[in-house]
Amino acid sequence: MTQTIDTTIYAAVSEAIQAEAKRILTAGEVTAVVGYAAARRKGSAQPIVITSAVDAQKLIFTPACVNNLAVYLTKAKKEIPKSGRIGIVVKGCDLKALVGLMGESQLKREQLYLIGVPCAGVLASTIQPDTGLTSDSIAPKCLECDAHLPQGCDFVPTQTPVSPELEKKYAAEIARLEALTPQERWAYWKEQFSKCIKCYACRQVCPFCFCEQCLCDRNKPQMVDTTPRPAGNTAWHIVRAMHLAGRCAGCAECERVCPMDIPLNLLNRKMAKELKELYDYEAGFQVNDKGPLNSYTEKDDQSFIK
Amino acid sequence: MSRIGVFVCHCGENISRTVDVERVAAQVGKMPGVAFATDYKYMCSDPGQTLLKKTIQEQKLSHVVVAACSPRMHEKTFRKAVEAAGLNPYLCEMANIREHCSWVHEDKQEATAKAIEIVGMLVERVKKNRVLPTITVPVTKRSLVIGGGIAGIQAALDIADAGHHVVLVERDPSIGGHMAQLSETFPTLDCSQCIMTPKMVDVANHPNITLYSYSEIEQVDGYIGNFQVTIRRKARSVDEDKCTGCGVCMEKCPVKKIPNKFDCNLGMRPAIYVPFPQAVPNTPVIDRDNCIKFKTGKCGLCQKVCGPGAVDYEQEDRLVVEPVGAIVVATGFDLYTIDEKPKGSMIKGYGEFGHGKIPDVIDGMTFERLASASGPTGGKILRPSDGKEPKQIVFIQCIGSRAREKGISYCSKVCCMYTAKHTMLYHHKVHDGQAYVFFMDARTPGKAYDEFWRRSIEEEEAVYIRGMVSRLYQKGDKIVVMGSDIAVGVQVEIEADMVVLATAIQPRTGADSLAQKLGISYDKYNFYSEAHAKLRPVECATAGIYLVGACQGPKDIPDTVSQASAAAAKVMTLFAKDKLEREPIVARVKEAGCVGCFACKKVCAYGAVEEKEIRDRQGNLIKVVAYVNPGVCGGCGTCQATCPSKSVELDGYTDEQIVAMIEAL
């Protein structure tokens, strides 16, 4: 049954974001604000970096504000944080990525002014931007969201998002795959990976793929076959999943941008589930010096050795 | 172009029995880059090494592969030979065709094919080896000794007498270990306390020894020559510097009836106590679990009566960090607890013997305390149940030891001898008593050992019955021992007043977690493993760490003392040098790829990773990258495995080398 999701607070949230962005830019607290602005198509949105208070009125928050803006502070956009303290509009899911990046020495908390967004959900990548938010049109990641109201930000509008309990699609799909035999599961992923065209969109959009030179682009030695063939595809996706274990908090940008509809976030969620079960660890809630996969305690599960 | 020389060793027959070494040499000789290949009976022998050196010069070899045993066995040997011939030693690699091939296979055809592949991998790898300069590091000429029993005491005294500082760490409130608990010692029957306590005093008075009693190892960082050891000094509640050891606190303590572990729970002690009167240091400790002050907040009597004001209820655990160059592990043993079946343990227990249920069934150490002049009975052999003198006593050997079905297959080595000693001590003290011993066979190798055992039978009238006991049960105030005499082929039933079980020697509880802190290996029983059973019996595979005493395997006092002096000699050998040459197998950061996530820094166990700023010519900061200090790096490769962008490489084990090996298959 389709449930409508209430997004009426988004208008007030947008106004609050504009006012705060104007204030901090005017006061010189930040040199730039990364946020969302309306794009050309009706109802659509795109990332924007504003540096003057006049532009603050361009900022919006709508169900089309899907992008994880954390990626604008690393990689190709490294010059942005270098210019000074930066304001950034973050949904709860995006904040988890920022928290992870702080733990990995890529960002410093004091360099950021966090404008948190009370968010009931955004649209799925397959839905037209001008559509109303319902349990059908909502992005799958939002169905399992545990961070509708971001914590620990410098500013959060006062509105409270209404978030009904919805059916968790990833959890159900993981349960379905776990019930399969290893052969069946392997056949499933082999088929999924065979679709990959090695466009690396998943890598470009991922806030945690911040290496300047990806090991998959190295050729001495060549660790991963670069052509879109089964062996190299599988290697790439396994390397990606392993590198994200204990770090990815599920912004699902990889899955959103994948032109071949490979369920990449499903793989990430499975890894996250493993970490939760093995180490009682969930990424993105606090700045950790050392994740569970980088540390050893005597309590760690060692059953795999014997 | 590489000119690789390959030398295939027969290892006597160890390799050539299963691997066609001539064929290996012939096949490898055809591989690209190989200029010379031959086989030889013993490559590690003097003529073998001479062959290696001569060929390097005659054939102008650029790299060398020796196909022989494990690099852990002879890598150093061959690298030294290669260096003597004028090549950089790190241009020599070993292909292990013994442990990895001939020893584990039977089919000669297949083993030969595998050996060719193994050597082929190393040929490809050695092509990518780089010239590595030797790294020298300073040696901290101080040693840590873990465990203050006879093993640790002897090692500490020997090292300290050589003029090097020793930090001796003991878990219990006093040093002395098990030997301090013994009454007399075989095979000479001299009093254990009489020969032990002077050594304990020597430790206390030695200017080169720092004694941390009631302390445990918290953390171990660093490597040979440069360890940093964090020691937890548990709160004693008594200031060691102020206490004069007068003992008034112990007299006045109102809690008196706490079973003393030192006396195997037969004697009692107060809540503030020293485990035994000759304790070193002679400083009491408060047992906080039993002290009224700690339980209710009242009392405080010991503090009131203490003249120098040494009692300190507020004292907390303290952590001290000691830099040392070598570590001697002498943690000793525990006795097998027969009535308990630890959860998850492979040890099964001996419920049928009623230990823990029948009060007069005791273990060997309890008998030692009964026989000891300083023990709870003043040296009289009396039954724990009613204090009567036992007139019939039964000793049962091999409890736990050599009992595969119970989980332990090894021999505990000392029980035959100490049981013979027990029968003698018993006969000396109870003239009209009779001792019986159930035994499988008597193992008495050692100087004057067999004579000692014969004496217990021939002069001290012990009756030895070859056979095992099936059951013990209480009948009135007697214990019925049901066993078999297999020499005669009859069932035997003895109504005994007391039964003494010669229980097995096991490593200390927690031996495994200490091993993990130290980074040393241990066997399935948790005994620590030596580097080589015959040729390196006191060294660990981890450089700079040495083993002494029963933590390595069951040992008697003479063997333990010999091993302690041997380990001390090894430490002194290490300390004879001012600088240590170490393998240049260290990590290097490829700065172009490093994004400064510092995952490497977080996982580095040696603290070798630093942050380095990269600036342009105007001094503008471009980025911050990782830098590995080669003097501190331990070469473990954890950073290499952790780096997400593969920007750290371990020299000698680069990705290029590893992939070259895989691709050669």
* Percent strand of chain B: 15-25%
Number of helices of chain A: 10
Strand-residue fraction of chain A?
5-15%
How much helix is in the residues of chain B? 25-40%
What do the pLDDT scores of chain A average to? 91
Helix percent band of chain A: 25-40%
Largest interface: A-B, 20 and 21 residues
| Structure annotation, total helices of chain B | 17
Shape of chain A: globular
Termini Cα gap of chain A: 48 Å
Classification by helices and strands of chain B: alpha/beta
Let me know the number of strands of chain B: 34
Give the CATH superfamily of the largest domain in chain B: FAD/NAD(P)-binding domain
Rg from Cα of chain B: 30 Å
Within the largest sheet of chain B, what's the order of strands?
Answer: 10-7-6-18-29
How is this structure best described in words?
The complex is a heterodimer of chains A (306) and B (665). Chain A is α/β, with parallel strands linked by helices. Chain A folds into two domains: 135 residues, no CATH class; 126 residues, no CATH class. Chain A is 33% helix and 8% strand. Chain A is built from ten helices and four strands. A four-stranded mixed beta sheet of chain A has the order 2-1-3-4. In chain A, β1 and β2 form a beta hairpin. In chain A, α8 packs across α10. Chain A is globular and about 60 Å long. Chain B is of the alpha/beta class. Chain B has five domains: 130 residues, Rossmann fold; 177 residues, FAD/NAD(P)-binding domain (3-Layer(bba) Sandwich), CATH 3.50.50.60; 58 residues, no CATH class; 173 residues, FAD/NAD(P)-binding domain, CATH 3.50.50; 77 residues, 2-Layer Sandwich (Alpha-Beta Plaits), CATH 3.30.70.20. Chain B is 26% helix and 25% strand. Chain B has 17 helices and 34 strands. A five-stranded parallel beta sheet of chain B has the order 10-7-6-18-29. In chain B, α4 runs antiparallel to α17 and α11 packs parallel to α12. Chain B starts with a strand and ends with a helix. The interface between A and B is medium-sized, with 20 and 21 residues.
